Task: structure prediction
Amino acid sequence: MILFLSTQDPLTSRNRSLINFLENDYNKSFKTLLISNKSIFSIFIRVYKSLRIYKPQKIVIGYNSRVLVLYIYILKIIFEFDVIYDLGYPISDIPKLNFLRRVLLSAFDYLLIKLSVLVIVESLEQKSFVESKYNKSVIVYFAFIDFPISLQDSSRFDFNYFLFRGRLNYESGILTWISEFIKYKRHGSYKLVILGYGDLETEVNNLIKNNLSDIIFLNNYVTESELISIISNASCLLGQINSNEGRLQKTIPHKFFESVYFRKVYLGYIYPPVRTIIGDTYFNCGLQLDPIEPVGKISELFFNFESQDENSLAQNVDVAYNLLINSHIRNKICLANSLQ
Result:
């Protein structure tokens, strides 16, 4: 018996991917306990009751929290179970933390890793990093999920567009994307759709206010069918372009997995974890940049995409898809064997 614990929404990409794995690829019983938006006391009671009722041999920790780390530490004294920690998005990797908070959250990550018999990470680069610091078994598992394409709505837009979907924060480089798109738009024909929310909503609105006919900003809730339609009908997806964000050297933006699933080009910087999976598939044809390149070259990505032959684009997309799928299948087999 496995108990999957998380403090985040089950539709969050890594949670959704792991739950999907347990439902479809794991041949033993499991239970899922989602404990977000609960009081500190009620979290302890719910976890305690679940351990007493189900008596799991293993607990898989999805997105964790400081409170959850402490409770697992206490409950491990009372109950016998192995801890498996999904470190795909460590709490200490939250962007824009001050030094003291990052040290504190790193201590919680460290404690949970030390309690774990197995650590799940998102890339080979992250695996090497964790293995170099801890004497732990580490395996790679992607946050790759199957979207229910049957839910797709009719196209929301009647024009060709680049799509940025995700958090509007400094890590994403959204302000740079907008500035470089405005430079491209002087001669380019595509539009830009931004679907997301976050700390930089005010800055985004200020930057696009003179280009509202070419930049469509959707910061409202959309249903899953609307989301699928917006992604499916995009010409390509924009990735992260913050060269100073260290986390991107080890982990993989979830929009990369979406681009592969929906067979879309992934435009942006090519960080080591993405390059490990798809190589220079897009880089060699001018659709990705090395993060050391000048920011001013980002606008060239839009022009390069627009000038590409459709057949060549389709071939590159197929190559990227097959490379990721083959890696994902190997990762699933490895995870299934590790959970036996």
Summary: The chain has a mean pLDDT of 88. DSSP finds twelve helices and twelve strands in the chain.
